[in-house]
Amino acid sequence: MATARKRFDNPALKSWEEADLHLKEIAEIDIQLQTIEAGMNLKISDTKLAAEMEAKPLQDRKEKLSLEIKDFAEDHKCEFAGKTKNLNFGKCGFRQSTKILISKIASCIAALKAKGLTDCIKSKEEVNKDILRTKSDDVIASVGARKKVEDVFWLEPDYEKLK
Fold first, then answer.
1. What is d(CA 101, CA 73) in angstroms, rounded to the nearest whole number?
2. Residue of 63, 93, 89, 71 whose CA lies nearest to 80
3. Most-buried pick from 41, 50, 131, 145 (CB within 10 A)?
4. Does residue 7 carry a pLDDT above 70?
5. What radius of gyration do the chain's Cα atoms show?
6. For range 122-147, the mean pLDDT
7. Whole-angstrom Cα distance, residue 96 to residue 78?
8. Residue 139 and residue 127: Cα distance in Å, rounded?
9. Cα separation of 23 and 137, whole Å?
10. Whole-angstrom distance, CA of residue 111 vs CA of residue 150
11. Of 83, 55, 90, 96, the residue nearest 69 (C-alpha)
12. Collapsed DSSP state (helix, strand, coil) of residue 153
């Protein structure tokens, strides 16, 4: 929910020179914020790298242990009562997995369409507002949309002049 913009009886700025000084201050604040964000990103990167290096041996050990259990389970599959083997510290087992492998997506989609299997094809419909914006107001209204035109304020500090 957008808040309504308030007008003050006595504007804070009295001249374009004051507005220009405000732009200068905004540019200086942006530079300080960028410096703070850059420092934060460096700290985050260093922390991520340290965590990855600390976790790597544990991940490698976990992978090795999992592979050893898998190899043992495959060799002793006949000892399973069903598809799962319950152990003291967990369970392991086999489950059936079915995958669909498609070599050429375009030809597969064409074949599905030709066979009337369109329910096997995903499609996402959405309005292309960029193209709709170029249509006449009558066309826009006829499809249940409307065009909203407004003047939107913007500002752009000149960072080069601060250097």
1. 27
2. 93
3. 145
4. no
5. 32
6. 91
7. 16
8. 14
9. 38
10. 48
11. 90
12. coil
Structure tokens at 76: 């002793």
CB atoms within 10 A of CB 132: 13
Q: Tell me which DSSP letter residue 82 carries.
A: S
State yes or no: pLDDT of 3 exceeds 60: no
Side-chain-side CA neighbours of residue 17 (13 Å):
0
Q: Is 111 exposed, middle or buried (0-12, 13-18, 19+ CB in 10 A)?
A: exposed
Band (pLDDT 50/70/90 cuts) for residue 161 is: confident
Q: Which helix (H) or strand (E) holds 17?
A: helix 16-75
Q: Which residue's structure tokens are 């914006």?
A: 133
The span from the CA of 66 to the CA of 60, in Å, is 10
Q: What is the distance between the alpha carbons of residues 157 and 34, in angstroms, rounded to a whole number?
A: 14
Pairwise CA distance, residues 110 & 116, whole Å: 10
